[in-house]
Design brief:
The complex is a heterodimer of chains A (190) and B (171). Chain A is mainly alpha-helical and 190 residues long. Chain A is 61% helix and 0% strand. Chain A is built from 10 helices and no strands. By secondary structure, chain B is α+β, with helices and mostly antiparallel strands. In chain B, 40% of the residues lie in helices and 19% in strands. The longest helix of chain B is centred in the C-terminal third of the chain and has 16 residues. In chain B, strands 4-5-2-1-3-6 form a 6-stranded antiparallel sheet. The model of chain B has no long low-confidence stretch (mean pLDDT 95). The chains are: A mainly alpha (190), B alpha+beta (171). At the A-B interface, helix 8 and helix 10 of A face helix 1 and helix 5 of B.
Chain lengths: 190, 171
């Protein structure tokens, strides 16, 4: 295992609640990180693989897939705007009632629409605490500022004090995002 | 010096891996600069001091139906005239009556002039002329306005009032 792979596995284990056992299909060949963005992408792939979310199967098919696609399309049709509710919130609520929140994690992608998807998830108070934690980890590990910002906003909206440690462990490089994160930590600690 | 303030999604105006450093991301423009009748809405504030910018936050937050953090970009009023943009005072769509006359529209926007506005907003984001008000700060703006009688709870969207009540119960 390369040094980069070992470093990433250490980070992976440090941010997991249970001891991870990577399945044999883990994309080890992709672990030779070429930079922060690549490392981040690999880390996200590892998480999703470990969670059994790759390859797509089980609940991530059929009606569940159609439901997620409908949410995605609604977000593409109309961007999420701070201070205003969005029609996709009702779709997400119905999705959660029908399928639970497991398949949502598999749908976290690396495209530019992912930030809005994370923001939408941040508006739901029906997600399990473990799901919120995984979304927070996933979003904060992104190389995309918008996705990290969305993860921070989701944590702010959930008001979940158990995520303070996730924030404290996150080494945010962008100053204004770091200030936002500190404000969230202060508010959650109050 | 007076400034014009507008709500933006700051993270969308940052550097993109797929664009050059000085490029203006189209995703930011299409998300944040959605025109209506070829005009864009701004709020005129006396300065970029927090207390003045909070007036824009209040006007915008009171017009919504949920409480979220808010990024406010601020630009010198003179920059708009320097760019050849036309400004009109129009009544703002906010339940806070005293703030309605603070509203300005940048009008007669075509693609080129919209590009000028985008350049102003992008420049504001790059030089840190953006203030982020977290959710707690936005909530405080609204609650203070209600307490001072600047806006009636009944004038707010019922979902916004519910959000205020829910958050008050948490603190």
């Amino acid at each position: 295992m390369s040094e980069a792979a070992r470093a990433m596995r250490t980070l992976f284990e440090a941010t997991s609640t249970t001891s991870p056992t990577l399945p044999p299909t883990a994309p080890r060949a992709g672990l030779a990180a070429s930079g922060p963005g690549q490392l981040s992408d690999n880390l996200q792939t590892l998480w999703r693989t470990r969670l059994g979310l790759i390859p797509d199967d089980g609940p991530h098919n059929g009606a569940c897939r159609a439901s997620l696609d409908a949410i995605r399309r609604r977000l593409e049709d109309e961007p999420l705007e701070d201070g205003h509710s969005h029609p996709a919130e009702a779709l997400l609520q119905r999705h959660l009632e029908a399928f639970g929140d497991a398949a949502l994690l598999a749908d976290l992608g690396s495209d530019s629409a992912s930030a809005d998807f994370v923001r939408l998830l941040g508006r739901s108070h029906a997600l399990r605490q473990e799901t919120r934690r995984l979304i927070a980890h996933w979003g904060l590990s992104s190389g995309d500022i918008d996705t990290r910002d969305a993860a921070l906003q989701a944590i702010e909206n959930w008001g979940d004090g158990s995520l303070i440690e996730v924030l404290r462990q996150h080494p945010e490089s962008v100053e204004w995002l770091r200030e936002y994160m500190q404000a969230i930590i202060a508010n959650l600690s109050a | 010096m007076s400034i014009f303030a507008r709500k933006v999604a700051r993270a969308k105006w940052g550097e993109c891996t797929s664009l050059s450093k000085d490029d203006i991301p189209a995703d930011a423009v299409t998300a944040d600069l959605k025109t209506k009748d070829n005009a864009l809405s701004f709020w005129r504030c006396d300065s970029n001091a927090d207390d003045d910018l909070k007036e824009a936050v209040l006007a915008l937050a009171a017009a919504g139906d949920r409480i979220d953090r808010m990024d406010i970009a601020f630009i010198d009023e003179s920059a708009f005239s320097d760019a050849g943009l036309r400004i009109e005072a129009t009544p703002g769509k906010t339940p806070v009556e005293t703030l309605r006359e603070s509203h300005r529209d940048v009008t007669h926007l075509d693609l080129v002039r919209l590009g000028s506005v985008a350049s102003l907003v992008a420049s504001a984001c790059r030089r840190n002329s953006v203030r982020r008000f977290d959710k707690t700060a936005v909530r405080a703006c609204l609650e203070e306005a209600i307490q001072r009688g600047r806006v009636q709870r009944e004038a707010l969207h019922q979902d916004l009032v519910a959000d205020l009540d829910r958050l008050s119960g948490l603190h």
